[in-house]
Amino acid sequence: MDGLYPEHQERTSSRGAATARARQTQESGFLEDVFAGLSAPRKSLPCKYFYDREGSALFDAICALDEYYPTRTETALLRSRAAEIAALAGRSAALIELGSGSSVKVRLLLDAFDRPALYIPVDISREHLMISAARLAGDYPAVTVVPVAADYVQGFALPAGVAAERAVVFFPGSTIGNFRPGEAIGFLRGLGTRLGRGVRLLVGVDLRKDKAVLEAAYDDARGITAAFNLNLLARINRELDGTFDLARFAHRALYNELRGRIEMHLVSLADQTVRVGGRAFRFHRGETIHTENSYKYSVGGFRRLAARAGWQAERSWTDPKGLFSLHWMVWPG
Ligand code: AVI
Question: Where is the stretch described as Disordered (predicted)?
Answer without folding.
Answer: 1-22
